[in-house]
Design goal:
It is a single chain. It is globular and about 70 Å long. It has eleven helices and 22 strands. Helix 3 crosses helix 6. Helices cover 28% and strands 28% of the residues. Strand 1, helix 1 and strand 2 form a beta-alpha-beta unit. The chain is an alpha/beta fold and 432 residues long.
Length: 432
């Protein structure tokens, strides 16, 4: 068994892990990265970049179909699924290549291959070959798609979003389970590319919207184009040859069984903290087994352990993961001299058409405590000039302002926001 003593050990080499490594290394600290899977970030391999490639192809097909509304007639639209997916895979591999190039620039002595698990508060074991002792440790192990029990072990027809980007051709039919950002983006893209698509939701939520007016507008706008099935529970599924027989139950208790080539599970993600021996750290955990941490420092309790990116389940977004990693790596290198890092105003966008965006504090968060302490302003895009010019006049913008201070606290919009709304908004986006 090799033994290694370092200043900082970073578990994981995704966006958060790489950012943490660089921040600690910049201080001159002896830092090691530990990785058990392939190098390359979630965003580049199976996340934001390949999904945007699929969405871009879908938008091109949709624009060609919608051109007649401007008096431009494009003729028959033919979608070549193999060509679509070939471009997705090719460009995806190019993006991953950029990440791999950056990893290649890191000294080999700073990279350990294997699965890391805690054997004590300051010690890790990597597979069976290396024991690591570190003054500071960053958990940046990412997350994985969650699959409900009803859909586990069914067969090759039940897939997660990671699998989509290795397709060589577009399928004939897909059932999407989940109306979060991933489910809506992929579901709409597939539908626009000619795939028979149905999107199922256990409740009535769309892209985690908590503002009831925006939710209503979003559900109606998406429902005009997509086969959205709210209040549907998955009962069971079984593989039947090259198809999946999916049985669901609606809100009235009626069951229905349909055949799909694939059932795409987009029901959220699970932080990868359950197989790293987290119990050996002595950290206080929440109900999901995730260490309690300070979102300004990424520090777990008062310990020398920090947690960053999707692993902490705070906000699984690329910019947030980069910020988490920088703060965690910097503090791990400085420990015990921990200090708050800079956090950006929360911003999340679902790249559906029209888009769904959330900026600042959320409606549900602002309503906590019972009494409204904020004013609401709103505008509809239905008759807004530029939106009508672009034939995208659907949606609504709602902004929240704090009584007394007159500060903007947040905003939500569903639709193509006019450029003036996109550029003139300034000021704090969090309550005092």
């Amino acid at each position: 068994m090799n033994k290694l003593t370092v200043d900082v050990a970073v578990i994981g080499t995704g966006t958060a892990g790489l950012s943490a490594y660089r921040a600690a290394h910049a201080q001159g600290k002896r830092t090691v990265m530990i990785e058990s899977g392939p190098y390359g970030t979630t965003c580049a391999r199976v996340g934001c970049m390949p999904s945007k490639l699929l969405i871009a192809a879908a938008d091109a097909a949709h624009a060609a179909r919608a051109a007649a509304g401007f008096g431009v007639h494009a003729g028959d639209i033919r979608i070549d699924g193999r060509e679509v997916m070939a471009r997705v895979r090719s460009e995806r591999d190019r993006f991953v290549g950029f990440v791999l190039d950056s990893v290649d620039g890191i000294p080999d002595a700073d990279k350990l291959r294997g699965h890391a698990r805690f054997t004590g508060p300051q010690t890790l074991q990597v597979d069976e070959h290396t024991a690591v002792e570190a003054t500071g440790i960053v958990i940046a192990t990412g997350s994985r798609p969650f699959v409900p029990p009803e859909l586990r072990g069914v067969g090759p027809g039940v897939i997660v979003s990671d699998d989509v980007f290795d397709w060589e051709d577009l399928p004939e039919s897909v059932a999407v389970i989940g109306t979060g950002v991933i489910g809506l983006e992929l579901g709409q893209a597939l539908a626009r590319l000619g795939v028979r698509t149905a999107i199922y939701a256990r409740g009535g939520s769309v892209a985690h919207i908590s503002d009831p007016e925006i939710l209503d507008v979003a559900a109606r706008a998406l429902g005009e184009e997509l086969d959205l099935r709210f209040q549907h529970k998955v009962v069971k599924a079984r593989q039947d040859g090259d198809r999946v027989m999916l049985t669901t139950r609606d809100g009235g208790g009626e069951e229905r069984t349909e055949r799909y080539q694939y059932v795409l599970v987009a029901a959220g993600r699970t932080p990868n903290v359950d197989a790293i021996g987290i119990g050996a750290t002595g950290l206080e955990l929440d109900a999901k087994g995730i260490p309690l941490f300070d979102r300004q420092t990424m520090q777990c309790g008062s310990s020398h352990i920090f947690i960053a990116g999707d692993a902490n389940n705070e906000m699984p977004l690329l910019p947030e993961a980069a910020d988490h990693g920088k703060i965690a790596g910097d503090n791990a290198g400085r420990y015990p001299g921990v200090h708050p890092g800079l956090r950006r105003t929360p911003l999340a966008i679902a790249f559906t058409e029209p888009q769904i965006a959330t900026l600042g504090a959320g409606y549900q968060e602002l309503c906590a405590g019972g009494l409204h302490k904020f004013a609401v302003g709103k505008v509809s895009f239905d008759n807004q000039g530029r939106s009508r010019v672009m034939l995208q006049n659907r949606g609504m913008l709602r902004v929240y302002g704090e009584y007394g201070s007159r500060r903007f606290l947040g905003r939500r919009w569903r639709g193509r926001a006019p450029s003036t709304w996109r550029t003139c908004w300034r000021g704090p986006a969090r309550p005092a």
